[in-house]
From TrEMBL:
The keyword Acetylation does not apply. This is Centromere protein P. One of its GO terms (cellular component) is nucleus. One of its GO terms (biological process) is CENP-A containing chromatin assembly. Keywords: Coiled coil. PANTHER family: CENTROMERE PROTEIN P. Residues 6-33 form a coiled coil. InterPro entries: CENP-P.
Length: 190
């Protein structure tokens, strides 16, 4: 029995020694990476970035112009939300891949249109060549709270297949508006 207990302790000691060795190697690698640049090179890079920042900040608009532009954009957004009934409640974006000519971003949107809730997940693929930039939507997934309706299921599956978000939002706006009218009518007769 003593031999088995000793063996367990020896195994534990060996695994801890291996872990210490791995951590020591990682630490040494990180130290080498941090000392890759000299202090002078780091200071020169900081000064260069400061000069670039100062040059860029001179070209920006004044705060009052930016504030006016922001207010104008907020009015436009408010008008579009009232006009279409679509209101986004959350958005997240994550860059999955980025090269010189190609960028892939994963987007997640959620919101509601009148009384219908929706959630979209898709990847936006942007390809850039010398003359232009093209974008395509891939891996589109739509989740609707009112998935019982066969017409809505057809719209969702067609949109997921073709990746045409403009058609989806136009159809959703119209469909949700008529759902709201139907709901108000049924409430009137109750």
């Amino acid at each position: 029995m003593d031999n088995s207990i000793c063996q367990v302790y020896e195994d534990e000691i060996q695994s801890l020694e291996e872990e210490i060795k791995l951590l020591t190697e990682k630490y040494e690698e990180s130290q080498q990476e941090s000392t890759f640049f000299s202090d002078e090179e780091i200071l020169m890079s900081i000064k260069s970035l400061q000069r670039e920042f100062e040059g860029e900040s001179k070209g920006h608009e004044s705060p009052s112009d930016l504030k006016a532009q922001l207010e104008s954009l907020e009015k436009d957004l408010s008008f579009l939300m009232k006009f279409t009934g679509i209101q986004f409640t959350s958005h997240s974006k994550k860059t999955v891949e980025k090269t010189r000519s190609r960028t892939v971003q994963k987007h997640r949107l959620s919101g509601n249109c009148h009384s219908l809730s929706f959630q979209l997940e898709f990847q936006l693929l942007e390809m850039q060549n010398k003359e232009s930039v093209s974008a395509a939507i891939t891996d589109l997934s739509i989740i609707m709270k009112s998935g019982e309706d066969s017409d809505m299921r057809k719209l969702v599956s067609s949109t997921e297949e073709h990746g045409n978000l403009l058609t989806f939002f136009r159809s959703l706006s119209s469909y949700a508006e008529w759902c709201e009218h139907r709901r108000c009518t049924f409430l009137h007769f109750k």
